[in-house]
Amino acid sequence: MATKNNGFATNCIHAGEITDQFGAPHTPLYDTTTFRFSSTADMLNVIEGRNSGYFYTRYGTNPSVMSVEAKLASLERAEGALAFASGMAAISATLLAHGEHGVICLGEVYGGTWELMSRQLPALNRHTSFMAVNDLHGLERLLAKQSSLIYLETPSNPLLEIADISQICSLAHRYGAKVAIDSTFATPVNQQPLSLGADIVIHSATKYLGGHSDLTGGVVAAADNMLEPMRIWRKNLGQILAPDSAHLLARSLATLEVRVQRQNATALHLATALQKHPLVKQVYYPGLESHCGHEIAKRQMRGFGGMISLTIDGEAGAATRMIDSLQLFSIAASLGGVESLISQPALTSHRDLSAEMRESRGITDNSIRLSIGLETPEDLEHDLMQALAKI
Ligand SMILES: *Cc1c(COP(=O)(O)O)cnc(C)c1O
To answer: What number is the average pLDDT over the span 327-344?
Structure first.
């Protein structure tokens, strides 16, 4: 069984596991919506908390779901974790449960998160202030006026900007504010925000945690008193992760460390090679010394992740020509799977912004985002180089 003293990879495999009477070496799938009791008294003992037990899957009391939650909590060194039906379910429950005094959003965030904060939550009288990630003076002025929830992503999408987690958290805590971090791009292999002072860590499990582009899910890890209000939102908004997805997620987490370490190594190798190419204007990868967040990333991350962005030096359409010439990389949204994916932020995640707004954020029509998979690194390098030659 997993204990606090075990290493990360051991916990990926064993934390939270439930053994059954048949001796299965992993937690079985409990694909059931409800659980029966031998008497009314037995049922009341569970409902009223005198005995432990399972009651109704949407409430979160399902062995497949609770087992993967225990695993996720151990990987983030958290008191507990909640599993959600998607990353956006986890994010919306966090903002609804902890954003009652307003939210301060630092830097770039995922498109769905931005839409929720800027368009939907205001309709519920929940307001978000958007600020640059490095504007600590502005942040302090705002915190002096209101004790809000601070929300940020690091590394961010698509340019892999790095926020200094411990600096932001110590400033926030001086003003009694809490900090929630979307750590999807980093994974707990590379970064554990709670150990750096954050109050809440969020993942889209659809990405690296699931890792095979075959499940949609989300996670929040935090202290139990932070999780409790989110558990109620999850229950009544019906945001629970389905048991079969929870089972699949636990299976995927068993290999999380080896997958991400390999993705770190391949991405660093490819970022270094791309940086030397004459048709590549700039490579954004936190593992490169040229990246503006490199020093902070070295302090707070154990690896730099599997995401790379770059801009092509060429006329309009150059990036599209390169992408359409690739043979191994697939043109697709999402990231973090075993297969390498490629996208153009200006045409996908950031298409709703005006060209000027994109430009001001460093995203051009020739920007490309790569999600590095687990294929043979030389094959990926060869594919990128042959496609660059077709520009
Ligand atoms: C994909 C993603 C989300 C949303 O996750 P879903 O599982 O698609 O709901 C949130 N944050 C980041 C950083 C993401 O990449």
So the answer is: 97
pLDDT of residue 147: 77
CATH code of 256-388, in short, is 3.90.1150.10
Where do the domains of the chain lie?
Answer: 8-253, 256-388
Q: How far apart are the CA of 204 and the centre of ligand 1, in A?
A: 5
pLDDT reported for residue 4: 67
Q: Which residue owns the Cα nearest ligand 1 atom 5?
A: 87
Alpha helix positions (H), the chain: 8-14, 40-47, 63-75, 87-98, 111-115, 136-145, 165-174, 187-190, 224-237, 243-253, 256-275, 294-300, 318-324, 355-360, 377-388
Which tokens belong to 287? Answer: 């593992």
CA angle, residues 265, 81, 84, in degrees to nearest 5: 90
Q: What is the pLDDT of residue 148?
A: 86
Is domain 8-253 classified as CATH 3.40.50.1000?
A: no
Catalytic residues: 58, 110, 182, 207
Hey, what are 355's tokens? Answer: 């060209």
Is the model's pLDDT at 3 over the cut of 60?
no
For 354-363, the pLDDT digits (tens) are 888 888 888 8
Mean pLDDT of the chain: 96
- Testing ligand 1's pocket by substitution, the residue of 86, 109, 110, 343 carrying the most ligand atoms inside 8 A of its CB is 110
pTM, two decimals, is 0.97
Higher pLDDT, residue 256 or 358: 256
Is there an atom of ligand 1 within 6 Å of 187 CB? no
Which residue do the tokens 């926030």 mark? 172
